[in-house]
Amino acid sequence: MPQTMQNESLVLASRVTPSKRQLQWQKIEFYAFCHFGTNTFTGKEWGDGNAAPSLFNPKKLDAEQWVKEIKNAGMRALILTCKHHDGFCLWPSKYTDYSVKNSPFRNGKGDVVKEVSDACKKYGIKFGVYLSPWDRHEKTYGQGKAYDDYFVNQLTELAENYGEIFCFWFDGACGEGKNGKKQVYDWNRYFTLIREKQPDAVLNICGPDVRWCGNEAGKYRSAEWSVVPSFIGNQEYTAERSQQTDDKAFSKKIDSMSSDLGSREIIDGIKNFIWYPCETDVSIRPGWFYHKSQDFRVKSVKKLMDIYYGTVGGNSAFLLNIPPDKNGLIAKSDVRVLRKLGDRLRAEFSENSAVNADVTASSETDGNRALNVISKDGFWQCGEEDDTPEITLEFKESIRIDKAVLCENIETGQQIESFEIFAETDNGFTKIASGETIGAKRICCFKPIKTRRIKVKITSYRRIATLKKIELY
Ligand code: FUL
Prior knowledge:
This protein has 11 helices and 18 strands. It is of the alpha/beta class. The protein has 2 domains: about 350 residues, Alpha-Beta Barrel (TIM Barrel); about 120 residues, Galactose-binding domain-like (Jelly Rolls), CATH 2.60.120. Strand 4, helix 7 and strand 5 form a beta-alpha-beta unit. Helix 4 crosses helix 5 and helix 6 packs parallel to helix 7. The longest helix has 17 residues. The protein binds beta-L-fucopyranose (FUL). The site of beta-L-fucopyranose (FUL) has 7 residues, from loops.
């Protein structure tokens, strides 16, 4: 433990670790959101709950097409809007008539949730549920327990009938305004039910497992902490900061809750902390739902790569929305970008040069050797007295790289507060990258460089310093 670690808040924060389900979720890294429903047919972003079910008619719906494109683009899961704010259900719920069963889709015999979850199973990606708590159609909304019963019944249908669900996504948005209906959600009841039916599922946004990044514009923090003060995990705190009007500008707003949620300065004096890792949600288009007029406004591969590096490579998950069109297919314009994105990701991370290195460190602990950073299992942990640990990777022949990937062993917490990376050239060691947090993953990009030695220096950390992986591309 470094000399500077005398502060009580720092010690407490350094002892917070993720749950098993949070660890599993963290490995998914990059996954898709599919906003689909009556809005797809009415052109709206927020349906008012009055659109006729007869409008819902995706004649060529092919969930396998969605999943194949999503998987090929490098994503490992898909979250479907089973019910958005308009209340229309994409599965034939027993508890309402406002669903696919009263639509022309598959002559009222269809079930989009089933088709999408089956396709995910078939192609080996995970399936997640978005179920909007705010419901503009359901009459009991605003009546307290009556609506909670309705919501719990729907959660039960989804949790019981569609196999394994990796995530339940609870949106904090509500546009009722001051004079609108006021529903006090019984969150604990919802969470208890899901823990019982789907114990491995994470509960996102208004749930305790995964935190909303605070904006919908794809903006990420330069230092992202997964250990944050406990009050940030409060549902009301999240809901108050979520979307309150059908305001097109909200998706571009980048005033995220705060740019720093966990540094030494911010947590000073705080005693209660939670592991609450970040998820960055953003749409591939301006809207969350498909609008033909936005076919020319699909984000570029360059923009998506930037968000990928900043989120997956910045200790956050990346949740990219790809809204299927009126036919029930991912539109050609989006497919084109997704395919290029997949190719690009494969090319950027094709050959990890670090695997051939000789690894040495300024210190190491029993069982947690420096060499572990290039092997599949284990991690490196520096010695107790080592205030600025260094780890060096040496190669027999020069390697040419433009990216370094660093991962902390988050099973023992998030501890590193700053680091620097150096490459040896003819002029000695030159600094090629630096940063604050690492967490689950940090991707550093730099100008291509030829070198025979790479050194990672941890310039500040909390209680223990670990690295699980170093990769070089
Ligand atoms: C927001 C919602 O209001 C949007 O319609 C969308 O579902 C987005 C992911 O969350 O809060």
